[in-house]
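Recap from last week: sequence in, structure out.
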Amino acid sequence: MNATLKSIFIALFPVTSLYFLIMTSIQIYHDRLSINNIGQLFIFTTIVAFFALLFLKPVARTKAGLTIHTFFIAIGFLTSIISSIIIEKNINIALPSIGLFIGWILYLKWYSTFKNRENNKILKVGNQLPELILEDIHKNEVSTSRFIGNPSIYLFYRGNWCPLCMAQIKEIASQYKELEKRNANVVFISPQPHAHTNLLAKKFGLHFNYLIDQNNKVAKQLQILSKSGIPMGFQVLGYESDTVMPTVIITDAKGNIIFADLTDNYRVRPEPSTFLEILDQQINR
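Predicted structure tokens:
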């Protein structure tokens, strides 16, 4: 139930913010610019710009608290509240500001976070990574046992629809030569349809491994499943409702886990330099 609510929330929150931004702009154009309107513009514009830029100029990670965005939204919220109480003497006109301010707090503290990932005992450093059975873009079965003999980086990503995931993969691709020097296998894994993964493989190419976790079997095996993790509506593009929590696992040549990033916030992800440092530490042992 909680996961379904998150899926609905992330589909509606940006759209609702855009709606109120348009309505406030129309009101200002036809009526007048009030202090309450200014406060609302701070809130609505900041939220809409944040989500729009995620897709227009993707980044691989953000700060957990999005401090600058939260500052502008808080300023807008306080401005709207003070104006509605002291100047307009009508708290009702601040209801959109109140609603979207609460929505932003929910986005930061509730939607963005994963709970209890530190309790995952399967992916503890020092453990042997279980054998995982996946599929390639041609639907051929692929076992991770084939990667034993070289260190491997396994990146579990939510799908082509996720701008942060795509930016993270682009970062790793930019480090291709450095990873090649270290003889590292790079394995990208997603539960998305084969055709989507094929598009990703054609986009980046290189000697990476683009694999599909059919029906999230491996995500369940590793306890990194994100129930109803796809925003509501993306199913029309062929995605299933369930996906995977962003996860990075690095194994040594014997298949032992030497690094595992089980982020508790989908926007907070490790830098590619971290992967290189982990590989170098292993090589220098």
